[in-house]
Amino acid sequence: MFVTSAYAQETAPAAAEGDTHAGTAVPAAEHEAFPPFDAKTFPSQILWLVITFGLFYLFLKRVVMPRLGGIIDVRNDRITQDLDHAARLKAEADAAVAAYEQELAEAKANANKIGQQASDAAKADAESTRKKLEAELEKKLGEAEASIASIKARAMKEVGTIAEDTTSAIVEALVGGKADKSEIAAAVKSASR
Amino acid sequence: MAAADKVDPIHQFQIHPIIPLHIGGYDVSFTNSSLFMVVTIVLASAFLYWSTASRALIPGRLQSVSEMAYEFVGNMLRDAAGKQGMQFFPLVFSLFMFVLVANLIGLFPYFFTVTSHIIVTFTLAILVIGTVVVYGFAKHGFGFLKLFVPHGVPGLLLPLVVAIEVISFVSRPVSLSVRLFANMLAGHITLKVFSGFVVSLSALGAVGIAGSVLPLAMAVALTALELLVAFLQAYVFAVLTCMYLNDALHPSH
Q1: How many CA atoms lie within 13 A of A43 on its CB side?
Q2: Neighbours of A171 (CB within 10 A)
């Protein structure tokens, strides 16, 4: 293409003829050989293909592919490592959350217990205060009843005395003279029964 | 002459020596084809080498491209031939990169397309099939011939089936090489023809220049198509290589 057609002329006279025909945009039919099927060029192409492809193969195998494989392996290792790290951090975070929740539950239970205790203590306190008050009241009631009973007994005794006095007075007035004191007491006693 | 060069669609495939060289009666001159083989491997090697030079943990764009190509071919080979097939990774990767870069370089105007010559693609195909045959016999001995005898075929049909299997195996290097070669050749001829229309029409004056918009648009569209074909054919070549290598590893179907 970029080499003059001089070579084409010296090796292939018909090629030059073809070129002139081609000037009229008609594909040249009189080429000596269709270039891809021109066996004269085969040895050169095979030799240079073997040389270039062989070098290319060796370069890729020795230099490029180990490097590319290394890059990709390192990256995969790194990704695996990072994923492991992330998984570990997540596990730690989960454990921290679990511990926090457990502590929270414990604290709640504690708070409940303390509240319960306080309320129990307050109840017991109130109960004992109430009992003490009741006992006191009971005692006072008993004392009052006792004093009433004694007052009543004294009063009754005094009633007896008054009745004897009155009886002796009535007897004195009616009968004249003094009646026996013990007889009067016995009479009063039997009458008051 | 220059105008004539432009409109001859075959001219682009011509091979001419740059450094004439004859060894043992063979013409092994360093030609434009050889030059573009060198350009191909230098470009591909340089790209792969420099893009990965920093070995970055987080790849840049160029390093990503290299890694993508590497993993793409690696996955392809692993899917087709399994873990054992990975010993052929360097071969498949260099074949893929060589064909891909050669195809892509060929898309530049005035550049020679190495893969548009059947002898080049055929040599690569022979390399693949040769590897399959040599490795197959080295690994399995005559057990490799089980490749041609599928299981569960009735005895009466066996000769026919074996003949078909042998023919299909023998035609593999042909189909592998012709597919790539024909795609490259046809694509470049079509591109050249449409570009040639642009030049010839433009020579006809104002009307011609206006009319040449159509073949120009076609040439642009074809360039895009050829870009796709360049990738696709490199991929197809590599995939088929992987499948043939799988036969060498596991000959009994």
Answers
A1: 12
A2: 17
pLDDT tens profile A88-130: 999 999 999 999 999 999 999 999 999 999 999 999 999 999 9
Q: What is the ipTM of this complex?
A: 0.89
CA distance linking residue B168 with residue B148, whole number of Å? 10
| CA dist list (Å): A142 to A128, A129, A135, A154, A162 | 20, 20, 10, 18, 29
Please name the residue ranges forming H helices in chain B.
2-7, 32-51, 61-81, 89-106, 118-140, 158-202, 206-211, 213-249
With beta carbons less than 8 A apart as the criterion, state whether B91 and B131 touch.
yes
> What gap in Å lies between CA B10 and CA B193, rounded to an integer?
10
| β B30-31/B17-19 pair status | antiparallel
Q: Kindly state whether A13 is in contact with chain B, defined as any CB-CB distance less than 8 angstroms.
A: no
Domain count, chain B: 1
Rg (CA), chain B: 22
Distance from CA of B112 to the nearest CA of A (A): 8
Could you tell me the residue range of the domain that residue B61 belongs to?
2-249
Residue of A8, A49, A61 with shortest CB distance to B16: A8
Supply the angle between the helices B89-106 and B158-202 in degrees, to the nearest 10.
30
DSSP-assigned letters across all residues of A98-123: HHHHHHHHHHHHHHHHHHHHHHHHHH
Asked whether the beta carbons of A72 and B70 are under 8 A apart, the reply is yes
Residue B245 pLDDT > 60: yes
Q: Nearest residue on chain B to A72, judged by CA atoms? A: B67
* Closest CA relative to residue A48, chosen from B150, B119, B7: B119
Interface test with B, best of A20, A50, A55, A68 (most B CBs within 10 A): A68
* Chain center to CA of A96: 10
pLDDT range class, residue B253, cuts 50, 70, 90: low
